[in-house]
Amino acid sequence: MSLIEPDYRFLRACHRLAVDVTPVWFMRQAGRYLPEYRAIREKHTLLEIVANPELACEVTLQPVYRLGVDAAILFADILLPVIPMGLKLEFAKGEGPVIRNPVRTAEDIVHLRPLQSETDLGQVLDTIRLVRQELNGKTPLIGFAGAPFTVASYIIEGGASRDFRLTKSLMYAEPQAWHALMKKLAAALADYLLAQVRAGAQGVQLFDSWVGVLSPQDYTRYVLPYSQSVLKVVEAAQVPVIHFGTGTTGLLGLMKQAGGTVIGLDWRIPLDQGKAILGDEVAIQGNLDPVALFAPLPVLREQVRDVLQRAGGLPGHIFNLGHGILPETPVENVRAVVEIVHEYSNNHFDA
Ligand code: CP3
Q: Could you tell me the distance, in angstroms and rounded to a whole number, from the CA of residue 176 to the centre of ligand 1?
């Protein structure tokens, strides 16, 4: 197991320790907005890249070199674990992820194979080892997994969804089947995150990207215990865990209850208001609107400063977007944000 390595500003901020400047990284910092990523994608599919540790390592490092961010995030996808569990995953052009044999019945759930990450996802773990070696202590590496609810929604719907009708229908009509599915996913995702930590991930993020579609009552009953079980297992491994979702303004207190060293905020709540709900026992990550990266520089600068001012220079803030970078984002604006965050926090906040 990795020890806590508090000398990186990212890890120090996770543990709410003082930092020289506010650490910054971006969700989806590797990807199509980078020309060097598109060059690799011209020759390889997404699934080919993640199955090839050398390529996946290269793509993981591209934004670290290009942007000067304070953390690397493993290049993988939240849906990779469902392939060895028996699902046929494709990334269709323009459609996002598609599952050809979605999970719809209690019978389908029984047939999901338990995940054995060390063997089933060995290439991802090899990528982690390679990235650690390449980074050589310069920048910490974040591993990640999808949270049980968000992964369940993809495998039930068979892809992206607007209303999550099939997911919620299973939840309401067949609660036993729902709980069985969530239990299997929680076990698989905890196993996967622990394997990432053993391979060298120095922090992990649990992506519950679509959890904001749930009422607090349904979150409590159908989701919280499973996110909690994943988060507990990983926190016991002594690495910081970022618990992230979007549309979560009404769920923040419950997400904190579920767990996480750090809670991710989207941009729909001002950071100081999110912080007031979450209290002082957790760090906060966020929360610039990803579309602010398309604004003219003075407007972008103003929005970055607003986030930093609301964080107030107190320990326990990691600057990030409220959700992932969009593919059309101008690279120079992403770089500018890193500079503004470092420069502003250096000049306005005491270490
Ligand atoms: O730097 C990074 O963060 C890259 C690693 C990464 C990917 N996916 C690679 C990827 C991470 C952390 C993810 C997480 C992920 N995947 C989430 C949670 C984050 C979020 O945005 O909410 C979700 C919901 C997915 C599922 C997924 N994978 C979708 C919806 C899509 C298609 C939409 C899109 O953004 O293109 C993918 C494909 C995918 N995963 C791409 C990348 C770089 C784009 C594929 C391509 O290169 O063609």
A: 30
Residue 130: its H or E element: helix 122-135
Query: Can you read off the two tokens belonging to residue 49?
Result: 């890249």
Cα(241) to ligand 1 centroid in Å equals 19
Active site residues: 28, 32, 41, 77, 154
* The pLDDT of residue 23 is above 80: yes
User: Using CA atoms, how far apart are residues 214 and 222, in angstroms rounded to an integer?
Assistant: 10
pLDDT tens for each residue of 196-221? 999 999 999 999 999 999 999 999 99
- Which residue, by CA, sits nearest to atom 41 of ligand 1? 31
CB 267 within 8 A of CB 291: no
For Cα atoms 257, 263, 268, give the angle at the middle one, nearest 5 degrees. 110
Encode pLDDT of 144-171 as tens digits.
999 999 999 999 999 999 999 999 999 9
Q: Separation of 198 CA from ligand 1 center, angstroms?
A: 23
Pinpoint the alpha helices (H) of 68-110.
Answer: 106-110
Q: Is 38 in the pocket of ligand 1 (CB under 6 A)?
A: no
Which residue do the tokens 């890193």 mark?
338
Q: Which pairs from 64-69 meet CB under 8 Å and 24+ separation? A: 64/135, 64/139, 66/34, 66/36, 66/331, 66/335, 67/26, 67/29, 67/334, 67/335, 67/338, 68/335, 68/338, 69/24, 69/25, 69/26, 69/29, 69/139, 69/338
Q: Percentage of the chain with pLDDT > 70?
A: 98
User: Whole-angstrom Cα distance, residue 278 to residue 275?
Assistant: 5
32 lines ligand 1 (CB under 6 A): yes
Q: Number of helices (H) and strands (E), helices first, in the chain?
A: 16, 9
The angle, 0 to 180 degrees and rounded to 10, between the axes of the packed helices 148-157 and 224-235 is 130
pLDDT surpassing 70 at residue 350: no
Q: Is the CB of 13 under 6 A from ligand 1?
A: no
**Whose structure tokens read 């939240």?**
78
Minimal CA–CA distance to 257: which of 285, 221, 228?
Answer: 228
- Dump pLDDT digits (tens) for 119-140: 999 999 999 999 999 999 999 9
